[in-house]
Amino acid sequence: QVQLVESGGGLVQPGGSLRLSCAASGSIFRINAMGWYRQAPGKERELVAAITSGGSTNYADSVKGRFTISRDSAKNTLYLQMYSLKPEDTAVYYCNAYAVAGGAGMHYWGKGTLVTVSS
């Protein structure tokens, strides 16, 4: 019903910047909120940033002030701009969408894009 495809991951040095993109397709009109999650080796998946259909945002304390989540509704695309990257930011980053249909909500996930911060 909703398909998500991430892009923009790669290798970057500590202190560098990277922008992730998430292209959404399908029943876009049903999406109420979107977000970015990440999962590092040996750790649980965690919420990095989220944005509602109204434009309000929230961030994990570990990325606040360094990352910015935004969306382009005309392009059906979600972004995560990352600055001052640290080795601990290394993880697979996943795009998430929360959609409502038939009175029920459901989360949809992309396949993920790998971000590696290393010298």
Give an overview in words:
This protein is mainly β and 119 residues long. Helix content is 0%, strand content 60%. The chain contains no helices and eleven strands. The protein has strands at 2-7, 10-12, 18-26, 31-39, 46-52, 57-59, 67-72, 77-82, 91-101, 104-109, 113-117. The strands form two sheets. Strands 2, 4, 5, 6, 9, 10 and 11 form a seven-stranded mixed beta sheet that branches. Strand 9 (91-101) and strand 10 form a beta hairpin.
Global shape: elongated
The Rg value, from CA coordinates, equals: 14 Å
Helix/strand/pairing category: mainly beta
Mean pLDDT: 96
Beta-strand share of residues: over 45%
Reported for the largest beta sheet, the result is:
7 strands, mixed
Low-confidence stretches: none
Quote the distance from N terminus to C terminus: 40 Å
- How many β-strand runs? 11
Along the chain, the helix and strand elements come as EEEEEEEEEEE
The number of helices is: 0
User: Roughly how much helix do the residues carry, as a percent range?
Assistant: under 10%
